[in-house]
Design brief:
The complex is a heterodimer.
Chain A: E1 2-8, H1 22-45, E2 50-53, H2 65-77, E3 82-85, H3 98-105, E4 111-113, E5 120-123, E6 126-131, E7 156-162, H4 182-185, E8 190-194, E9 200-203, E10 206-208, E11 224-231, E12 237-242, E13 247-255, H5 260-271, E14 278-289, H6 290-306, E15 309-320, H7 323-329, H8 334-346, H9 354-375
Parallel strand pairs in A: 1-2, 2-3, 3-4, 6-7, 7-8, 8-10, 13-14, 14-15
Antiparallel strand pairs in A: 1-11, 5-6, 9-10, 11-12
Helix pairs in contact in A: 1-2, 6-9, 8-9
Chain B: E1 2-9, E2 18-20, E3 26-31, H1 38-50, H2 57-63, E4 72-79, E5 82-89, E6 95-100, E7 105-109, H3 110-120, H4 131-134, E8 135-136, H5 161-172, H6 179-196, H7 209-251, H8 254-338, H9 343-366, E9 368-372, E10 382-384, E11 387-389, E12 393-397, E13 400-405, E14 409-414, H10 418-442, H11 447-474, H12 479-499, H13 502-529, H14 533-577, H15 582-621, H16 623-641, E15 644-648, E16 654-659, E17 662-665, H17 671-691, E18 698-701, H18 709-720, E19 727-732, E20 744-745, E21 749-750
Parallel strand pairs in B: 3-19, 3-20, 8-18, 18-19
Antiparallel strand pairs in B: 1-2, 1-4, 2-21, 4-5, 5-6, 6-7, 9-12, 10-11, 10-13, 13-14, 15-16, 16-17
Helix pairs in contact in B: 5-16, 5-17, 6-15, 7-14, 7-15, 8-11, 8-12, 8-13, 8-14, 9-10, 9-11, 16-17, 16-18
The chains are: A alpha/beta, B alpha+beta.
Amino acid sequence: MTLRFIHTADWQLGKPFRNFPAALAGELAAARLDAVQRIAGLARGRGAGHVLVAGDVFDSVDIAGVELRRALQRLNDEADITWLLLPGNHDAARPGGLWDRVRRLGLPGNVVALTAPEPYALNANASVLPAPLTSKNPGSDPTAWMDTATTAPGVARIGLAHGSVRGFGSDGESAVDIAADRARRAGLSYLALGDWHGALRISADTWYSGTPEPDRFPDNEPGYVLSVTLEGASAPQVVRVASNTFTWAKLSVALASKVDLDGIERDFARVLATPRSALVRLTLTGSLSLTEHGDLEAWVETWSGRLRHLEVDQSALHTRTADADLDTLGRDGPLSDVARTLSAIATDEGHPQRAVAETALVRLFGFAAEAAREAAP
Amino acid sequence: MKLRALRVAAFRRFGSGVAVDQFADGINVLAGPNEMGKSTLFHALEAAFLRRYKVTGTQLDGMRPHGGGEPLVEVDFEAGGGSWRLRKQFGRGASAVLTDLASGQQVARNADAEDRVLALTGRSGDMPGPLGLVWVEQQRSLLAPSPDLDPQTGEKKPRGEHASLMDVISAELDAAVTGDAFEAVQQKARARLDVLLTPTRAGIKKNGPLELARREVAEITARLDEAKRASAAAQDRVERIAQATAELGACDTPAARVEEQARLADLTQRLNAAEAARVARDLARAALATNEAELKNLLLARRNAEDAAQRRTAKAAAHAEAQALVEQISGLTATINAEAITPAMLERLSALERAHDLANAKLSGQAVKVAITLAPSATGRLQVDGEPLVHDAVAEVPERMVIRAEGIADITVTAANAGEGAALKAKRDGLAAELATALAAIGVDDLAAARVRGEVRACHVADLDRARSRLSGLAPHGLAALTAELEALNAAAVHSESSAAGQGFDDALAKAEMNRNDAQARFAAANSAALSDETLEALKRDLQRAQAAAAARAADIARLTRQIESARAEQAGADEDGRAGQVAALSGELERAKAEDTRLTHEASALKLLEETMAAVEARVGTAYFAPVTRRLGPHLERVFGPARLGFKDQFAPDRFARGSVEEPVAALSDGTREQLSVLVRLSFAELLAARGRPVPMVLDDPLVFSDDERLAAMCDVLASAAAVPQIVVLTCRPSAFAALPGQRLVLTAWQPGA
């Protein structure tokens, strides 16, 4: 027999993204909610009737009632898909807590909340063994029970858990340790893990799906769901399927001159499929002349328009006052005097005003250039 | 620029129109009395060139004449190679019209007109330009010429004066000194910083972006704290529900309920039994007490009866004795009465005897003692007083005695006092006879016998006394009373002996005793069955404790149930309010707000550093900027003051004035000197402006009022020779003072403003 299902995790619905401008925060939150529909579409396209969500369905146990309703409605809308939801560290199942609220609001018929560690029969041939978290820090491996869990002979056992598998570069954000060989020990055909926001293969039968919609500038590969096919006793076939709306990228570039900005553009072209739906965090180091700083500002303005969001950290990018810079101010004029005074501070690495002086220099050149433009006929 | 004509209507002092039409190049003097309206003309010039036609409020009110009306100013001038007429209507129907006099065409209206005029009069940027520098209002000529200082308010405003001055100065200085750019950068930095910090740069500008950012950080922090509290409260509620549920489960078990009921029932039943036993014991005790009282009453009745019998017996005995005593007394009384020998009689008899004996003794003493001792053969042979003597005798012879010895002789013995003896003898014998008679009367032989009988009588009297005393003790109220008492007792005895005696009574007594014994036995039994007080109290305490424990458990259950319910209710409310869920959102917002605060703080620091650095550089190179002014000022000073030099602070404010070797602060100078310096500096400005292609007329309203004749003459000399200045207009009320000043004399004419 063949069983195919979708493995996903770390939805964190209701995450507010308020460290971003309000409009973007709204788009990011909406994209996470829309992921439900996209995943349902992917499942249908692959003939999978079940979606296993390996924890952190919701961003917080304090999530507002209206957000919960909205999420449940989205799941309900995809009526032909059965959603199996597992409580993770973000939405741990405390008695009287979030999942009780979910139940009070009413679980749609196609949604199963796996809040107890007991087998759930997916169909006649497969059972899901869930390892729900009941607190942020349960203190023991929640999958341990799977070793002795009994299921009918011949039924495929699918583990569903949320936590870290140490030593596989998947140290997630929760403080939950899961044995790397749980699948083997508990006789699982497949162990679906969540918590590590990127997609990651631990072994042939143990995978992290990552979050379907990235929610941070990643160190891993988010934006996928896994399409898992179990066939008899052979190893599961796992296919990564992109499910993201936004692309998040972080880049660190050392600048020596404005020519290096072209290099950044090449990086963008390589990393970003569609710049308009990309969020980029650019960390700049090195140094530019004052005139080049002006060029950089213009470049940043240009790319802020092309990308959905660009944040540039220039705190480690320094200024050089070049002779050419001084010429634009009048080599022997009072503005050059000012520039030289500030430059002395800006190049003194031990000076407490160094960063301030760098900005003051950049402003001086900016104002001078502005005044020159205004004076020009 | 040169003025050619000024026309004014409905403006301050001028209700109807006036005109000054003959402005010439060089010096123009309008002299007239105080009330002529010179200052009004000055203000009309200001209104034409420096005020917007749309002014309102106090500025407009300041222009209006007392009689009302809408101020109108028309000025003809030459500038930029053309001749122009600017007509400004203020107040209602405000307008500004610029006409090219060469063509007679209106070239601009309103704001456009004003804009054109500014361009023609040498504006700087979009600011009015230098006119204010060289137009000196009445009574303000004392003020040091300070660019951009508003003469009305004393406040510095960017009016373009300083900028104009800098422009013309820079034009004269080395081309490398880009004063224009410096000023522009400085202004941009200042403008940006003004938004962030206070003018002194010491504080954050109120309602500026930096303050808003700080406030936002504080507000979001407060809201975040609240959300965190709400979140903690939500977690706490969950924990409370969990804990209360666990506690409820532990305390409300079926086993606990059953055990509690059994214990309560057992204790209640035991206590009820104990209390019943105690009631039975109390009843037995009461019965015993009743029985004992009954028995005691019977015994008392019996003893009373016995006492009464005893009393009756005693009374009867007393009665009998009393009766005997009465008889004895009667007998004794009779006996006593029968005996004549009373103690008195005895006394009389004794007295008689003693008298006899006394008489006898006396006789004896008188008598002669005669002792006769008879010879054994003489017995009877002698006779004494006729009596044979048989024995030896001793006789006392009171009188005489005759002793006869028969036959032999009579022997008479006579006493010496025989007579007395005879009397004594008679008395004795009489007494003896009286005694004997008395004794005989009572039938006794001698006194001794009488005495015996007297003693017998005394004995009887004593007996009688005793009997009487006894009787008085037995029957103090007499025998009759005693008899009555006895009879009463006898009568009572009849009754009491019948009730408290006899077989019936004995039976009753025996029965009472038996009842008492039974009751005693029953009480003993009940008493031993009843619990002791201590035990009963202990039992009661046990029950109370058990009940209290049950109540406490019920209260616990109720409390826990309530707790769970209320926590759930709170939870339901909090879920919807969603405040707890704001933590992540507010954390994000706080991150943004802090970043903005940091950015703006950094920006403010940077701009402040830029501003400070520029100020320092400006101070260093600033003196160079004064050179074009001081160069022109020098000859003027020389002419008025002799060798002299004026030093400037920044912004062209005169600072120190040196004459020869003496240097003084300008503020310390006399009014006259300061006024002269002020006019000369302005003149230098006007010359500088004219030299750099921005000629403007200089207008002095009632100047040099503080100057003495000599200085005034020197000043007029300077003004007259200031050929570089296109036009100097002097408005004065002292025609003679400026008589020496050459140039055009202006007159006021009436003007009828046309349309």
